[in-house]
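I am still getting used to backbone structure tokens and would like to learn alongside you. To get us started, please write out a protein record for me. Start from the sequence, derive the backbone structure tokens from it, and show both lines together. Once you have written the record down, we can walk along the chain together:
***
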Amino acid sequence: MEIERRVSEWGLYLPEPAKVPADVELDFAWARVYGDRVYVSGHGPQAPDGSVIGPFGRVGVEVTAEQAAEAARLATLAVLGSVRRAIGDLDRITAWLRVDGYVLAAPDFNRTTNVVNGCSELLHRLFGCEVAQHARTAMGVAATPLSCPVVIAAELAFKV
């Protein structure tokens, strides 16, 4: 469990399953295993207990680009938590294939790539370039669930 050891040594955490407000209905899987792939639904930043954490709002207005990049790192840890629950051991991951980052952006904010770099940089640190190299989208959007500044989704391959 090398990846989880690194997460712990670096003072990071894999959050518990997402806790959402009582009026939010979820009818999907956070991580769907199909063959040797894991398809990961969009995750926002989460506290260790799985609750959604801020800051909340539009990047470039209520949230700085630096805060949003940190939110992208926290969302990536939430993704990793869901993947671990789906496949049991993060060391089974053989390739991060695709990462999609959705940034709640102010109309004039055009540095979404810098925000989603928070995700990509963490993956490269944890998994190394060979496994972490991925295709990526960093899109500015008008709304996200619960006004999270960034939402991260992914597709990855693992050893069956």
User: Anything to note?
Assistant: The chain is about 30% helix and 25% strand. The chain has a mean pLDDT of 97. The longest helix spans residues 65-87.
